[in-house]
Design goal:
Shape: rod-shaped
Order of helices and strands: HEEEHEHEHEEHHHHEHEHEHEEHH
CATH superfamily of the largest domain: Periplasmic binding protein-like II
CATH topology of the largest domain: D-Maltodextrin-Binding Protein, domain 2
Strand order of the largest sheet: 9-8-10-7-11
Structural class: alpha/beta
Distance between the termini: 70 Å
CATH architecture of the largest domain: 3-Layer(aba) Sandwich
Oligomer: single chain
Number of strands: 12
Helix content: 40-55%
CATH class of the largest domain: Alpha Beta
Number of domains: 3
């Protein structure tokens, strides 16, 4: 009987003291108490953040934040500021969060904290859409690596054949005789004319059997060499005409590049040693591109593509590649008490079908 009484007392003590502690520990982490609504700094950056005529904000970042705030039950309001003020506000405590297509950079991480990335994208390049004659395109095609190698190879063969014929004919054919400088020049002239299928004068042709055999072989080879060089030039020029002045990152070194004043874009261009002109907005840079003042515009690929699609669809096109990929995230002040709760909400929202549908609605692809 006494043993049963002891067991009952132990169970009572567990229920009174241990059970509440275990119950609290088993509960999921919740957001800290909030005495005021969060001020969320945003900027115009389609398709991440856009404000319509009625002052309503929409966009990938905006819709994502609304879903997260609903999950955590955070009251908030949006406050429009520029990019610099976003991070100044976070540092001074006037903003509780900042978004709108913000890429994570070392400079920004020195003054702000970031949630888990929700989007990955690189820098994109916009170029004029319409084909037009450009002497830079012609010169660039002629000086391309492939054509240069072929041209140097043909020049080397001209000199080699000229040397062989001069060695054979210099003592037996007056045209190739005389001082070595004169004989070699005449031999090179004959070799170049033979390549161009220009009939030489009777006195300016090899007379010996070995010399005539070399000449005949060189004439037959000239047909194939000219055909190969013509095909290479046609291919290179057609590619330049179709692709324009810029076909890869390397071409940006040789054209007029415009960039939006942004630490990420201009930082990458500086590291690559590419000269550029800065503009305040993507729209201003694209206007200069359509006016013929630029050959290419470099900026965040999603923002640049959105601006092209809505304002310059017929005059500008995006190249089918991007570079310098970076992560986009929501910024918070250092040591924000909302970091854990917002990160959990972010991961939960981005794993839903709603998130995939949202990206497809704004970007047209998964």
């Amino acid at each position: 009987m006494a043993r049963l009484e002891c067991l009952a007392q132990a169970l009572t003590l567990f229920v009174l003291f241990a059970w509440p502690v275990l119950a609290v520990a088993a509960q999921p982490a919740v957001a800290p108490a909030l005495g005021h609504e969060l001020v969320v700094g945003v900027r115009q950056a389609p398709p991440f953040a856009m404000r319509d005529a009625d002052g309503v904000w929409t966009g990938i970042s905006i819709d994502l934040w609304r879903q997260m705030a609903e999950s955590v039950r955070i009251p908030f309001r949006f406050q429009e500021v520029n990019t610099e003020q976003l991070f100044v506000g976070l540092a001074h405590g006037t903003l509780d969060a900042a978004m709108s297509g913000l890429a994570i950079t070392p400079e920004r991480m020195r003054t702000a904290d970031f949630l888990q990335p929700y989007f990955m994208a690189g820098l994109g390049v916009a170029v004029p859409a319409g084909p037009k004659f450009e002497w830079r395109a012609v010169l660039g095609g002629l000086l391309s690596r492939g054509l240069s190698v072929i041209a140097l190879g043909i020049a080397g063969l001209i000199l080699l054949v000229a040397l062989v014929v001069w060695l054979i004919e210099r003592r037996r054919t007056p045209y190739f005789g005389g001082p070595p400088q004169k004989g070699l020049v005449c031999s090179v002239t004959w070799s170049a004319k033979a390549l161009g299928r220009s009939p030489p004068e009777p006195t300016a042709s090899p007379r010996t059997l070995p010399g005539r055999l070399v000449g005949a072989s060189w004439g037959a080879a000239a047909v194939a060499l000219i055909a190969m060089f013509t095909a290479a030039v046609t291919t290179a020029m057609s590619a330049r005409e179709l692709a324009g002045l810029v076909r890869s990152e390397a071409d940006l070194h040789y054209v007029r590049v415009g960039a939006v004043s942004d630490s990420r874009t201009t930082g990458w261009l500086d590291r690559q040693g590419i000269n550029y002109v800065t503009f305040a907005t993507p729209a201003a840079a694209l206007h200069a591109l359509t006016a013929g003042d630029l050959d290419a515009v470099v900026y965040n690929a999603p923002i640049l593509a959105w601006t092209v699609q809505h304002d310059h669809m017929d005059a500008v096109r995006m190249l089918p590649f991007s570079f310098d990929p970076q992560r986009y995230a929501i910024a918070l002040p250092p040591d924000s008490p909302w970091r854990q709760a917002l990160n959990v909400a972010l991961l939960e929202v981005t794993q839903t079908d709603w998130w995939q549908q949202t990206k497809q609605r704004y970007l047209g692809a998964d």
